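G., the chain you wanted modeled:
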Amino acid sequence: MAFVPGLTLCRRFHDEVLAPLLARRLPRLRYAAGRLDSGSELLGLDTERSTDHDWGPRTQLFVAGPDEVEPVRAVLDTELPAEFLGWPTRFAGRPDVRLGVVDADGDRHGVDVDDLAGWLRGRLGFDPRAGVGVDDWLATPTQRLAELTGGAVFHDGLDGALTAVRSRLAWYPDDVWRHVLAAAWMRIGQAEHLAGRCAEVGDELGSRVVTAGLARDLMRLGLLTRRRWPPYAKWLGTVFARLSAAAPVVDGLSAALGPDGWAARQAGLVGALETVAGWTNDLGLAAPVDPTARPFHGRPFLVLDAGRFATALRAAIEDPELRARPPVGAVDQYLDNVDVLTHPQRVRRVAATVRPD
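Predicted structure as tokens:
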């Protein structure tokens, strides 16, 4: 079977198979359809390697209410064709994957049917159509936002409801954006001096580990300055490198993480920090801050003193309730556990613990 980009395959599967089938068998059905959940195809990053699990002719169908789910499932269970463009439409489950591997003898197909409200609450812990508050923004991992606003909508027959949700989740309000950026700079400021101190006492491995953590945080921050939801670790470097102005940061971080010693590591890291600092100033969200590095308390290594950017951004926040929050940002800026971040109720309970009393 020839590889076809996943979104192309899924769109054609909807347009050529699902839409005609539903029009014939359930002509009064109002529904929306798309690929919005998990999968590398949502970011246009799938390859032939992606086809080994959770990939194939797939679509999510959303209906107006829970009472409409089962009739649609019944039609699909019995009337979907066995294959599409040479790819089986059935999947064989495995314990280590969500959907499974395409398999003509599989016991389930790749079309999920849900009522839109229930699906949104299951993925986010809230329904954005009722509004997105500060708590909702800060309790939603950016990977989830990348998924829900990535991919594609193939049909929106629910009065544009699915498209409206994606538009509402497209980006943070400015004050929330300031808060999240401030938290990112605060986190960098707490660690940026450690790489030099490790190197000074001969701990090259420790210096590299600190630098790698700073590189990750800086790439996530850089994406946030460019209004791009940072994806999870597998695709962070790829998505960041595709930014139009990313080359100086990529070069700097590559040098910082390369085989040379502390002098090259510091030069690369400082160059990358100064570049992203300039991007932050360019946003106009806060008073500009001098983006040049300086010695750390007179010690023989350089830092940006990133907390200055956090201070400026926090000072520009207009919402007094948001300004009163601890400067920890969104939940995936201080939590890095897949089994929490992928469960909305768990992640919302964690996020609630850092709200002001």
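The longest helix spans residues 204-225.

Shout if anything looks off.
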